[in-house]
């Protein structure tokens, strides 16, 4: 099984979706969250799709598109989307890839040994506007993902890109950020006078 690598180009793909043909190139200039689910008409996946749908506008405001995938047909996807709308009152606004041949799932390492041959694991991939894979998150079949955490992670990565900083555990907008540590003895000596909140030479924070 091939696995994509963080900070390298995301595997290119072209696929049919519930919104027509889509390719990775279509998303250049935007962030993309590509996420797989084991199968249509499964309860955990249903809750995740509802969660993504409810935050789709928030993601869009962050220049981020959503793209789902499972190894099911377009017709299965459409019927499941209709079921979600009928039973939960939620419209799924983003495309879902028809990956019957498992081409996208295999390119992204979504098929894991021990899982059913025709099921993709709960994998989530963050691809930046340049087409680079920036984060991968895998969940077990039995447990649903936290969409709020994906919002937070996207906010953190966008903030790091914009300000050339890192973010601490659980960071949310408005919290202090981590300044890159100095890399030379001279830079260490200067760090105390740079105005940061400093715990030690390697750990300094600031507000944005």
From TrEMBL:
It comes from the Bacteria. It is an enzyme of class 1 (oxidoreductase). The active site is at 45 (cysteine sulfenic acid (-soh) intermediate). Signal peptide: none annotated. Homodecamer. Pentamer of dimers that assemble into a ring structure. InterPro entries: AhpC/TSA, Peroxiredoxin, Peroxiredoxin_AhpC-typ, Peroxiredoxin_C, Peroxiredoxin_TDXH, PRX_1cys, Thioredoxin-like_sf, Thioredoxin_domain. Its EC number is 1.11.1.24. It comes from Limnohabitans lacus. The lineage of its organism: Bacteria, Pseudomonadati, Pseudomonadota, Betaproteobacteria, Burkholderiales. Residues 4-159 form the Thioredoxin domain. It catalyses: a hydroperoxide + [thioredoxin]-dithiol = an alcohol + [thioredoxin]-disulfide + H2O. Substrate binds at residue 122. GO terms for molecular function: thioredoxin-dependent peroxiredoxin activity. This is Peroxiredoxin.
């Amino acid at each position: 099984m091939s696995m994509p690598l963080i900070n390298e180009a995301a595997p290119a793909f072209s696929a049919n979706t519930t919104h027509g043909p889509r390719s990775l190139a279509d998303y250049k200039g935007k962030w993309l969250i590509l996420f797989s689910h084991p199968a249509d008409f499964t309860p955990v996946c249903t809750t995740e799709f509802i969660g993504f749908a409810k935050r789709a506008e928030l993601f869009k405001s962050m220049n981020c598109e959503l793209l789902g995938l499972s190894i099911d047909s377009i017709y299965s996807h459409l019927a499941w989307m209709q079921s979600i709308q009928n039973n939960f009152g939620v419209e799924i606004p983003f495309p879902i890839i028809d990956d019957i041949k498992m081409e996208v799932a295999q390119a992204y390492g979504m098929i894991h040994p021990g899982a059913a041959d025709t099921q993709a694991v709960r994998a989530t991939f963050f691809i930046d506007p340049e087409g680079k894979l920036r984060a991968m998150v895998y969940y077990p079949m039995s447990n649903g993902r936290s969409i709020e955490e994906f919002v937070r992670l996207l906010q953190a990565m966008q903030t790091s890109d914009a300000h050339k900083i890192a973010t601490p555990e659980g960071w949310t907008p408005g919290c202090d950020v981590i300044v890159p540590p100095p890399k030379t003895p001279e830079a260490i000596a200067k760090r105390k006078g740079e105005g940061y909140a400093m715990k030690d030479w390697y750990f300094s924070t600031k507000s944005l």
